[in-house]
Model the fold of this input.
Amino acid sequence: MNHGAGGRASLQLIEELFARVFDNPALREGNDGAVLDVPPGHRLVMATDGHVISPLFFPGGDIGCLSVHGTVNDMAMMGATPTALSASFILEEGFPLADLKRIVESMAAAAREAGVPIVTGDTKVVEQGHGDGVFISTTGLGLLPAGRNIGGANARPGDVVLVSGTLGDHGVAVLSQRESLAFDSEVVSDTAALHTLVAALLAAVPEGAVRTLRDPTRGGLATTLNEIARQSGVGMMLDEALLPILPQVDAACELLGLDVLYLANEGKLIAIVAPEVADAALATLRAHPLGAKAARIGTVQQDPHHFVQMRTRFGGQRVVDWLSGEPLPRIC
Amino acid sequence: MNAVLTPAAALQRLRLRVEGAVQGVGFRPWVAQQARLLALSGWVRNDGQGLEAELQGPTEALAAFAQALQLSPPPLARVQRVQRTPLAVQPDEAGFVIQPSRATAPQALTTTLPPDTAPCNACLDELFSPGDRRWRHPFINCTQCGPRFTLTARLPYDRPNTALANFPMCPACAAEYADPQDRRHHAQPVACPRCGPRIALWAPDGAVLIAPEAGTDAVLAEAAQRLRAGQVLAVKGVGGYHLVADATQAAPLQRLRAAKQRASKPFALLVANTASARRWVQLGDDSATLLASPARPIVLLPCQPGVAAAHPAIAPGLDEWGLMQPSNPLHWLLLHELAGRPADPAWRHTEQPMLLLMTSANPGGEPLVVDEAEAVIKLGGLADALLVHDRAILARADDSVRRPLGRDAQGRPFFPFIRRARGQVPEPIALPGVPADAPPVLATGGYLKATVCLTRGNEAFVSPHLGDLGSAASRQGLMEAVTRLQDFLGVRPQAVAHDLHPDFFSTAHAQALAEAWQVPTVPVQHHHAHAAAVLAEHGHGGPALALVLDGVGLGSDGQPWGGELLRCEGTGTGFARLAHLPALPLPGGDRAAREPWRLGAALLHSLGRGGEIAQRFAAEPLAGSLGTVLDRRLNCPATASAGRLFDAAAALLAGVHHNGHEAEAAMRLEALALRHPGPATPWADAFTLDAHGVLDLRGLWTALADSRIDAPAAQAEAAARFHASLAAALVAWVAHHARAQHVDTVALGGGCWINRPLRQAAVPALQARGLTVLEATQAPCGDGGLSLGQAAVALAFLNRSR
Ligand SMILES: [Fe+3]
Ligand SMILES: [Mg+2]
Ligand SMILES: [Zn+2]
Ligand SMILES: [Zn+2]
Done:
């Protein structure tokens, strides 16, 4: 936290930065908490997300906007309208103020763009070596209309699995930045707030027809679909040929032996929808700038073992497993 | 005779319990026949424990019976235990009868079934004798032959529990079945053209081309015609469907390669007899016996000079073919039809020109197709017609595959299993040294070439090969195999063993079963399981070294292992990792295992010669970028794998860049090495061994990188020298540690030991160093044997905690 010519950045300086950049009425009140109205006929949704990422800056984003998008998306996946965010920072002593400023400004821009103010926050500084630059936790509050029920346990056999765009962009963008890998065309993180895409989708189909929404972040599509399959007590059958994947992401996966199904996304959603609305839902997603490359990638099926399976490009079938951690070699 | 032997006072009565593989092998008729010969009275029957009999007669006659039981029981039977209880004489008893089987509660079952057996000579004589009532009957069998394991739903082995349940016997068959003098007395699957199952020919979409009513001859004539015309048929066999074609024609082979998405995996072949086999392959006496054995495995045999080159589509890049002889009457009949229906039954002993491709019908690595509905869906696109029948396959069994490798350490013919399935299962593997009352354990194996193993007392029952566990269907197959073994054996496992890999389905299933049964799980390190499998079949009690060479298995430290020198304290008990092969990075994880060129690149990089990668692997679009991946160690787990060293060598010496099928690179490299005439000299300075027994192979790596491969002879020589050098290094390494550990036995485990030049060089050299060498003879040395080794570890675990 060196400030200027070797001086220690004071907490006060940081707090001033936050107040100036995040500026909004609730924050201006200067109280220990923010007071929010809840309109009648709504319930509150609360979601929280901790953000730890290396590198802090990557093509298409940084930890700042990521921490806004992550929590906004968590609320959006519940079918809620995000209304406010809190932010908590843990800074490592010696962290450059210029970087901090860049992060905070990116956060503020993301919040402004999403229309979700950061209404309260906190900062702590830890000794050098006790943190990794900066950790950001965000918590969000959202409003959920009464009677809306979107959740991981709602998928039923016959339902259709949609994804809002190309897979693995974020994972490859971060990796290539971290390892200074150059690909023929740069891969940019997809980090984005998805609540307007969700709102469009929910407006286009009858209530209840969207069973499940999830953002396939850490662990990727494979992990997320396995979670849903287990929660809903169903299986799924994906079609490899239908997965939207950028050629440069595909190439990176091939070189590094990575499986795109397990790579993180930060601006994509999976929608499991009733079969009769699948076409309308897909058209709605595609009509939105964040869903231009949306695709129908598979169906939900009955399966006592809750396997997520995939028809491969070669006509075989394989199970897309829920891994216990990083993929470990298994070919003996 | 009566006058001498029947003073009333000398009468005795005995109850006999015979356990082992004693059902479905003609044991009851045999007992009845012996009893009548010796004028004994009483009865015999099957029950869930095996066979039960009461015999009454003069002491001498009973002794003669006991002797016959010991010396000449029915050929297919495997008697394990005989229990004799004296009973009170029943004064008025006369005659000897076979009683109906007694159904027993499943928990009490202690018997088992014999494996499926090829038609016996007596049946073949009938099959090919015009005028016989079973002339050309595709389902001929008797008590001495025929399907068993694949045909039986549950024990006891009686017709209602088999696939013949829905085929009531005609009077003629019923009479044979009932006649104690008949070869088919109590042959459960007995059938004839009047009452048995029937064959038919279907179009790929399931439409009937030739109905069963048209008769066997019409169906066979059309099938043979199509084979001659170069078509591919899906043919229902004993344990599943095969895809069949005339292997001497190029077109059907190319079509199958394209449709099955396997550019290079060797195809298995069917020949009529050993005389016909000799036309194509070199066949020693031992191999000929194996090829003709009732189990009818696929046997990998070196081709006659020029043969492999003349038929390159059969086993691309290899000089060995996998041959089998007919394992069932339908295979025989296809050959008979193709031979022009010769009238003389002797045709089957004479050389026949037919060479049929016969590859398992398991599309996309899924389990073997066994029923008609599935065949239409999954094989419709691969086959021009389906040769089907209405006798159900109740259990899958792929063809077993064995590779003759000379003699074992004890001087017996050595035919290790590559795959253990039809003809072998459910034959138990004896576990010498394990107490007969040991608690039963289940082991769920690994991931590739999966098998499961259930023990009962001191016997291990390993399931048929279940394939790779990547698909839902093969996982279903694993679950069914567990259930079926349990049903057959009637035991409740007291522990469930599994691999350490957290993401194998076999691991998850083991944990789920153990939880449901409330018994402990026993996680077993992969290479320890390989070692334990070998030690278990030999009943090795004391300490031993184990040299385990395979692709990769998860180590106790969470790292990938693969070329391990272990010290085992005994079978299944504790182990220590003494040393391992020098590690190579695996650029791209499992992707590297499919792309040997990545290992070639990794080896160059490890020598500090990463700059050569792009030029040496110029055909690979990613070759220019892999250096960076290796520099930064991106997804480059370091693995001490032996299999990957073979991959690296194959990429550098044989130009094999991609594995079209498992171990293709190693197999092609081996084929190259075997082309080198005469003995190969190890490279000088191929390895060094320090005082701690750490093996350094940089010399070998450098020789691989520097070998001239511009001419076939130089290539073959380099491949041969690689094998010789590696063998020399391994032998010195093992000998060093054996001395340091004061151990005189070494077990060889892991899939690399199926490699002929490696094994042929290493085994005698280890013996020459005074070491006793133990090899895998009963179960595959590769991952197909893991479940056996895991079970041995679980048994030791329970034994310790007793
Ligand atoms: Fe292995
Ligand atoms: Mg979250
Ligand atoms: Zn027979
Ligand atoms: Zn009959």
In short: The radius of gyration of chain A is 21 Å. Residues A 49, 70, 74 surround magnesium ion (ligand 2) (CB under 6 Å). The interface with chain B takes residues 175, 179, 181, 254-258, 303, 305, 307, 309, 312, 314-319, 321, 323-325, 327-332 of chain A (CB under 8 Å).
